[in-house]
Specification:
Chains A, B: It is found in: Cell membrane; Membrane. Chains A, B: This is Magnesium transporter MgtE. Chains A, B: Belongs to the SLC41A transporter family. Chains A, B: Its main location: membrane. The structure is a homodimer of 462-residue chains. Chain A is elongated. Chain A has helices at 6-18, 22-31, 34-47, 49-57, 61-70, 73-81, 85-94, 97-106, 109-118, 121-131, 138-141, 155-165, 190-195, 202-205, 219-228, 249-267, 282-299, 301-309, 311-316, 324-347, 356-389, 397-427, 437-460, and strands at 147-149, 174-178, 184-189, 213-214, 233-237, 243-248. The termini of chain A are far apart. In chain A, the strands form two sheets. Chain A has a three-stranded mixed sheet. In chain A, strands 4-5-6 form a three-stranded mixed sheet. With 462 residues, the first copy, chain A, is mostly helical.
Chain lengths: 462, 462
């Protein structure tokens, strides 16, 4: 076991680059895996993009294609700019088609043209076909490099076929059995093959109960199949039920991470994007964040109107104003707890929209418990801290009672809205993550004030 | 391709159960995969737990163990209660050790005792060993069922070994080469084996540069290795560098989903737990949610104190009160955008704590852009809507200016705090997700009020 972590290696590699000891560098790189090399090249690019290309040229042809696929768009572009058309052509041919398509979607049009010109006609046709699938569909992330078998083959023939064509397949461990017209008939794993007799016929050992998805399905459906059924790959069929590609488990991990990031973004009022934080420019970040901030700021006009409406009462009972932020905060936090829990539960398939009644009932009971606990603590705190410790005589028992009773209603309202809105969104086909904390806080803010002033009017007769 | 989705099957299965046509049901179940059967059994359990056990007994021995592993703790417990010790023993023996350990951690102590009694001494020893690893460590999620090879073996011998022992291994596709003292020396895939000559020696085709992790590493490190390096499994070694288990990609998908759920929970001020939403009782939900709500409610005392302090000024300039909710909301939303983006970026490894200066500098520039945009729109809106449309003469140009200027400072402050706190948390080893919206909103609320009243004192001379 000679594992050397990238961090330990880093300094030595940088030293080799600086002292131009390219032969030693090449030997070192040969031992490393594509992920670490890509990270190293990206780091180099930060100081000097020329060095990046120099290091890249040291890689063997096959290794080069793998490293290239791991790089992000800006570095890919930098490297494309500094290599010949012939070198570019070799890289594209050695890349898996789905990686090449991923790359195309990120690169500027003039570079895409150069890449397409450098590819062979067959690769070009494949890439073009893939680019036609809708964004974020299973079709757009699948790969055509799978092993197909026929049901009349026996195990020996099948293994021979895998040995012959397996080298450039993305996975050889799951093989798909197709009919003459390319319809998917079954699935057989290399484990099945190895554990069966050499003369056994595929038809007898294949599993006919294939879990699959369609090219037009959302990519998250492919991810769900793989995750639910613990698969290494899921086959993708077209409208005519013909097998056109597979989605492998490593792509699915990326999908799951991207989808979670998308939910985080949406829930914080940020327009989602595929770009990681570190790669997003300031202006782009502003564009992704300003719409919700603007909308929420403007919709706060309602809270202003409510406060203005009760201005006279407030000036007579000025002590009430001091508790407005606490009430709105408690409402907002209660609501976002519920919305977050429900949104997450929906997105991992733990809850379905049809469960709406039981979810609301559960949230209301939790809200009653939380509301009463908070109200009791607040009542004691207002009398002990605000009245006695901070010696504010305006905080009377009736004021403390009004504020505490408001808390109960506000928490119940906030938690109900917090669970109902995401469930409705899911039902009508909107991403429930949009119905998250910022929106719910804004609604809760206005309603909290209304509840507060209404109760104050009744109890304190303001 | 005879794929029938579970939803289509469901009604027919239920009908078979109701009419007690057990033979037909058994045939149907034999064709289904363990995930769908587990879902069906869980659904049955909701109406009648006796039926659940009846259906479970129809499954073949092996199939039974797989289905059992897919069930949640309450259903497992239900079934354990209604089968004999002999049946229980068979199930435990047929389960992968890591699945059995998962189960043990969820079941009540008296049931665990029964399970342990039913297992063979070897299985019992293995389970006990696993239960000793810290919670959420790589050791706690690994499985001991891997294929080990020796470096002096040739390809033919290796494949023969896989055929002999591969049946009950969690993956056969990645094999680990170990020395006589069980130290990890290399890794070889079945693809390498199949694509090599039958007489090739493992030593020559194995990859010595093994990506591994340690039993005491956090499980998320195992997940990161698999996700970064696109692996099917990562080997786990103990303190003496001996190979003791592997973590497979299907477990890692679960880990990634659980870690994301944990971040969502923390960021909404909910204490995280492994239990899905639908399985969490009302009192447990209250316990997980009340601490943060309580803390945040009590810490709002500061905002009350600030407002009380400025009470006189506010009663003379009552119009200012109306904009407090908008300012606090805008601050909270701006801050939570930054904290969410940074927390997510940290958790997928896109940003490191050492990037703190560049992150803060980026967030400040975004904040200046957002702040100015919002301030301009707000200035126009206050004069057009509040002053003219809602004919509120108190909203003067100077008031609008004060509120708008406050927005600029509040947004800059909120976005700075929103990115700095999570970065510091990560640096000192606290989960950055704790530093999320609720906490940042509370800080921002108090500071927003201070900025607002200070600017108002200067500009409006209140």
């Amino acid at each position: 076991m000679e594992e050397k972590s990238y961090d330990q290696r880093r300094e030595r590699l940088l030293e080799l680059v600086r002292s131009k000891r390219l032969k030693a560098l090449q030997l070192e790189l040969e031992e490393m895996n594509e992920f670490d090399i890509a990270e190293f090249i990206t780091e180099l690019g930060e100081e000097d993009s020329l060095k990046m290309a120099t290091v890249f040229r040291l890689l063997s042809k096959e290794h080069g294609a793998e490293v290239f696929a791991e790089l992000d768009a800006p570095e890919q572009q930098e490297i494309i700019n500094s290599i010949t058309d012939k070198e570019l052509g070799e890289i594209v041919e050695d890349m898996y088609v789905d990686d090449a398509v991923d790359m195309m979607e990120e690169l500027p049009a003039n570079i895409v043209k150069r890449v397409m010109r450098a590819a062979t006609p067959e690769t070009r046709a494949l890439i073009n076909q893939y680019l036609k699938y809708p964004e974020n569909s299973a079709g757009s992330i699948m790969t055509a490099e799978f092993v197909d078998l026929k049901k009349y083959m026996n195990v020996r023939e099948s293994i021979a076929r895998i040995r012959r064509i397996g080298d450039d397949k993305e996975t050889i461990y799951v093989c798909y059995v197709t009919s003459a017209d390319r319809k998917l008939e079954g699935v057989v794993t290399v484990k099945d093959l190895l554990l069966s007799d050499d003369d056994a016929v595929i038809e007898d050992i294949m599993d006919r109960n294939v879990i699959f998805c369609r090219t037009t399905d959302d990519r998250s459906e492919a991810a769900e199949r793989i995750s639910d059924y613990d698969l290494l790959a899921v086959p993708v069929v077209d409208k005519e039920d013909r097998l056109v590609g597979i989605v492998t488990v490593d792509d699915v991990i990326d999908v799951l991470e991207e989808e979670a990031t998308e939910d985080f973004d949406l829930m914080a009022g940020i327009s989602p994007s595929d770009k990681p934080y570190s790669r997003t420019g300031v202006v782009e970040m502003w564009k992704r964040r300003i719409p919700w901030l603007m909308f929420l700021m403007l919709s706060a006009t309602f809270t202003s109107m409510i406060i203005t409406h009760f201005e006279d009462a407030l000036s007579r009972f000025a002590v009430l104003t001091g508790f407005v932020p606490m009430l709105m905060g408690t409402g907002g936090n209660s609501g976002s707890q519920s919305s977050t829990a429900v949104i997450r539960s929906l997105s991992i398939g733990d809850t379905e929209p049809r469960d709406i009644l039981s979810v609301v009932w559960k949230e209301i009971r939790v809200a009653v418990l939380c509301g009463i606990t908070l109200a009791c603590v607040n009542f004691i705190k207002m009398l002990l801290v605000d009245r006695i410790l901070l010696s504010n005589p305006d905080v009377t028992v009736m004021v403390a009672f009004t504020v505490s009773l408001t808390i109960v209603f506000v928490v119940i309202f906030a938690k109900s809205v917090g669970c109902i809105l995401p469930m409705i969104a899911e039902k009508i086909g909107i991403d429930p993550a949009v119905m998250a904390s910022p929106l719910i806080s804004t609604i809760t803010d206005a309603v909290s004030l209304l509840i507060y002033f209404t109760l104050a009017t009744i109890i304190l007769r303001i």
